[in-house]
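Appendix B. One record, verbatim.
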Amino acid sequence: MESAGAAAAVSPSRRLLRRLRDIMAGSGTPQERLDTIVRLIAADMVAEVCSCYIMRAGEVLELFATEGLRREAVHRTRLRVGEGLIGVIAATARPLALADAQAHPDFAYRPETGEEIYHSLLGVPILRGGRVLGVLAVQNRTLRSYTEDEIETMQTVAMVLAELAAGGELAAPGELQTGTWTGLASQRLEGVRLHGGLAKGAAVLHEPRIVIHHLVAEDTGAELKRLRGAVAAMQSAIDDMLSASDLAGGGEHRDILEAYRMFAADRGWLERITEAVQSGLTAEAAVQKVQDDNHARMSHATDPYLRERLADLEDLGRRLQHHLSGRPATAAAAPGLPDAFILFAHAMGPAELLDYDRRRLKGLVLEEGSPTTHVAIVARALDIPAVGRVKDALVKVEGGDLVIVDGDEAQVLVRPSEDIVQMVDGRLETRAGEKRHYAALRALPAETRDGVPIALNLNAGLLLDLPALDETGAEGIGLFRTELLFMLRQSLPNVTQQTATYRRVLEQAGGRPVTFRTLDVGGDKLLPYMAEPEDENPAMGWRAIRISLDRPALLRQQLRAMIRAASGFDLRIMFPMVAECAEFDQARAIFDLELKRVAARSHEMPARIEIGVMLEVPALFFELPQLLSRIDFLSVGTNDLVQFLYAADRGNPRIADRYDALSPPVLRLLGEVVAACALRGVPLALCGEMAGEPLSALALIGIGFRTLSMAPGSVGPVKAMIRGLDLSLLTELLSGIDALPPRSLRGKLKDFARDHGVAA
């Protein structure tokens, strides 16, 4: 229970908030209520002037209500963001208190207001969820120095006004504009491509902001009790997260979690929230107010430590609000999701994405992420456009905003103009027509105009991928990523669980070939129950076959499950990230042990067994003759092979476009692999992203590949390209590749496709 002295100290602020609440809930038009509110604030703050400016479309602040300035200035006086003191407050999202406002270099005199007789000014931004909705200001004739308590009161009052400003009652929603922290409404956000495509929908935040319906506390003591309970629950949950982690032995990640727990117990942060409750706000509103204050103070900081601290405090604020509200922490469990929505998140795991209704989920935008993360792989499986590494996406979008995601150009358009919407609607209709065209090709063979058949397979990793076999007309599964089964669980799947999943994959494939890749984790693909290795270069570190050979029990269980699952079926297994023949020999020896073990227990054996390798490490290329004598098939994984060949991280946007897979060095190497496999009669396939891009697939077919594996959404476009191709003409173009200058052949291939009517 709060002391009598504390109650007396905060009673004026509380009394003002309660009177504002009564006005907000009372009768009259929104404009009439706003007029009453500015009169009340002026009286309570002992100010001759109180004015409220609202952000209008076009980044303009319009005077919506005033007590003290000339009435004819209302709805006439407008200031651009950054213009005048009001514009500066909106641009910086920071309060401004000046004893002599007219002496400030940014003071802008507007004669229609009659404000030349007022000297001092106190203005605060009207903030809601990290956005500037307007500015609230008071002015006095005297050279008045405003106190910290008065600034605090104005900020608290501005929170109440934010609800009125954001409600769409003062003006039509399309006429209002909510600025970001800098007051600039950025509509075009850039990122990196995770999956191509185009989509339009309403923004949904994966971790939704809590909508605060009650800002003013009825009982401050009860609100303080709720706050203390929620803080305790949040801190307990963080302790559980820490104790449940696999990092008990120490290391950098445990240090980060310890720092996070320290922030959760930060006395200054918690005291500011407590003080906001004591001023008369509900616990939820107090948390939001402190979050807004922190962001306004720290969002422009250049010190990396301060920016990391801000991110931690914002995340903690969200967690605390969810504990206070008792609502689900993610939108997947929320009722009433839009029929077509774009999901926004800082980062996500693949299981979290699969929680959403795939019929409504149209696109994905992440502040983090790279094309190789498994959430990106799931997005490709769902065939939804996805863009990653979109800076400050969660600050610049509000739930319900109309959003367009252009995965091909790695762009996100937030609240686009009507002409852009019409243009995108046209493109979406065109793409819908293309999909109908591709669907019509489903039953037709993937065969060139001069009669050369090309086998098109799917890359998969989830049971939800398998219906795409019938939808696309693909011939089989060229790559089944078994690691997704491991990543979607909170504990290691046992042999029985793995067997059941692999069996369902084979059954649903309906007799079509399935190539299982053994566990490929490590690097950027982490298991939630496995400690992350401290690799300086994760992509080239302890991952894939290296983990499997160092943890043979893990590999033995997986191989045992595959053998059991394939009883009566053909079994195809390939090992990833093999760098030398000796590694394959070790893996094959483990497989042979498990084969004997299953046979000894009288289990029905697979009808046929084929064991292969993924060529991803350039060193293995120099052992091809020895390798090809040991294996039943070879599959090229160009994603890793190309990045290792150029020593270039393909997830790094600074160099993502620096090297082209359609350059002579890559095509020459792949051509030699084709020749070596043909010489020794070893079946060859390619299952990297190159296979799914029509122009790249054109080049691959031209140098001799006859089996390609790709995402389901790529089968139609690649088949359309193949059916329009005269391979003999392409072979002639590429026959002199050794004599070509060491530049990308992309331009030449585009010219060839255009000149010969090939859809690439």
